[in-house]
Each structure stands twice: as structure tokens, then as C-alpha cells.
Amino acid sequence: MNICKRCFVSGRVQGVAFRYYTQRQAQKLGITGWVHNLADGRVEVLAYGKPDVVNQLCLHQGPPSAHVVEVKCQVDTNSNVPKDFGIS
């Protein structure tokens, strides 16, 4: 059974290639979903896949120029999950 998690990442996570880093990591793990910037400076991530694999997606770090301060995740009941992992 798959799970869907919605996470909000704060810190210096915009303008530092954090979305691309997250996308590459998700694609390697076989996770589907998306990542995008929010107007308040955070990044939002929707990750869908097997629970143990989704939990391997590390959002507490990013590329060298990023600085993650906080990650808040919750289980999501989203049924419109993409077939790949995109950046929007």
C-alpha cells in the first residue's frame, strides 16, 4: 500500500536549486509527486510511493547552498498524484 505525504520545508530553500535536488532524489527512489516554491519562501513537496521509500526522501538537506531550518510533513489523502515527479 502506498502513502502520500505533503511536506513544507523552510529556510534558505528558494533560489538554491532545492527543487531540482529534491526532484533528482525522488526520481532515483521511484517516488511520484511534485515540488514547488511558495510565496512565503517555503518549498512544498508532495511525495507518493511505498512508505519506506517515501520516508527515505531526505528533505532536511539540499544542495550545498541550501540551509533547511524546518520540515513539517503530514499524511495526505491526495488522489491526483502525477505519474512522475515534477517541478512546478
Describe the secondary structure blueprint for this structure:
Layout: E1 3-12, H1 18-29, E2 32-37, E3 43-49, H2 51-54, E4 67-75, E5 85-87
Parallel strand pairs: 2-5
Antiparallel strand pairs: 1-3, 1-4, 2-3
Quick one: biggest sheet? 5 strands, mixed
Q: From N to C, what is the helix and strand string?
A: EHEEHEE
Count of helical stretches: 2
Structural class: alpha+beta
What is the second-level CATH architecture?
2-Layer Sandwich
Provide the gyration radius in Å: 12 Å
- What proportion strand? 35-45%
The fold-level CATH name is Alpha-Beta Plaits
- Average pLDDT value? 95
CATH class: Alpha Beta
Largest sheet strand order: 4-1-3-2-5
- The tally of domains stands at 1
Report the principal-axis shape.
Answer: globular
Tally of extended strands? 5
